[in-house]
Amino acid sequence: MRNRLTNLRQLATLINEQVDFIENLAEQQGVNYPTIDTIFNECNESEKFTTQAEVFDASLIAISAASQLIATLKLPVPALYERATGYHISSALRIASEVCAVELLRDAGPKGMHVKDIAAATETNATMLGRCLRILATHYVFKEVEPNVFANNRLSSMMDTGKDSKFLVKLAKMANPSPLQGVSTVRGEKYINTNSVVALLDISTDYIYKATSYIPDVFLSNTKSRSAFQTSINYDGSLWDFFEEHPHHLQRFQISMEAWTRMNPANLQSSLKGFDWSTLPTGATVVDVGGGNGSVSFDIAKRAPHINIVVQDRVQTIKDVTIPTWQADPEKNELLKSKRVSLEGHSFFDDQPSHLVGKVDVYFMRYILHDWSAAESAKILKRIHAAASKSTKLLIIDQVVPYACPTQAHKHLFEGSNLPQAPYPLLANLGEANSPTYRLDIAMEALFNGQERTLGEFQELTEGTGWRIEKIFQTKGSNISQILCTKV
Question: Name one Pfam family in it (predicted).
Fold first, then answer.
């Protein structure tokens, strides 16, 4: 009997060891780890404790072991059924967001609010709303304090926009329907000056959710002439074309990108840790390819005041997003006036502007290649290669997807590519503890026919476009890496 339980005991031991470590550290620092019933407050010492690197690392091991223990103990059919019907959680989350449930419950306090009162405020169906909140509470989002009476908890309170509930309810009713079938109404004002989490959840439960349901159809048709997103709303343009036609959707999308730093505390520094910008010569030129609102360039400019930065993106994005963002911020606007930073409308599928050819020290791109297929990504890298001098560096900042099995294939091939091994008997990639990486991978497929890539896939892509991987800067606890390449 003991031998048959060995695997269960190993997993349980891993959980106990990590919990002991976390609780001992918490005791030393005089804090308690937050419970599921506490309201999230990032200024709280307990919440700050959860983001400490050693605490976060220990929690990943515990989560991985707990998830694997659950998968081992649960019968296969209910385990598979849960995975097949995860879309019900997405639907319920979107409804909760649309009816401003979090903000209404914030006003109600710990005693909560009856579902009939929530529904009355938003003129929605109380029975259906109650069922949605209950399935969420069953998955630890919200708390049912009495029959049909709900309150916020740690998870649901993370969705709080911080805005007045009456304003949000009014805003929801003002939204103008789109003429396109399947396109939801969005008001960008909902997401401005928020923690960005609700923006990420809303795009995930809106068009990413809808598009994902069409991935099997696109896959089985054996053609990628249209993405799952295009198929889902019967639209011929790209997602970027869609955003230009629907600026509120673009606004929500741009804000949602900031939430990835909250997904993992190590992600916050992953774009800046690694390559030493201070080593560039005075007056060096750095091009931020597809730089969006230029937030990373701003951080780099502060760290390396001796270099010049060009932020490139689509003309519409530069006009509607980047320029207003930089002109509205005194510190950023001063960088524009001093010409240390310039904003340039440019498509990375076109030749680089002539004034930059042969004169750029570093081209860098953050979260760009995952938006595109291998063929389209190759076009982007070839355009940069054609404009680069022999000494130009290419810095790719993106997720490197770990394999789910042990591998030695690239362990010593590139400097910095060594990854810490997961303790036995956990999956090599820590399983569900690391699931956001793989979920984002499928989301990229749904939206763009894009993908997150393994190190082997990055090697194939760079070598096929005239670049050689020189070094990898990996931030501990994050799959986001900096891949430094030289021109072949």
Answer: Dimerisation
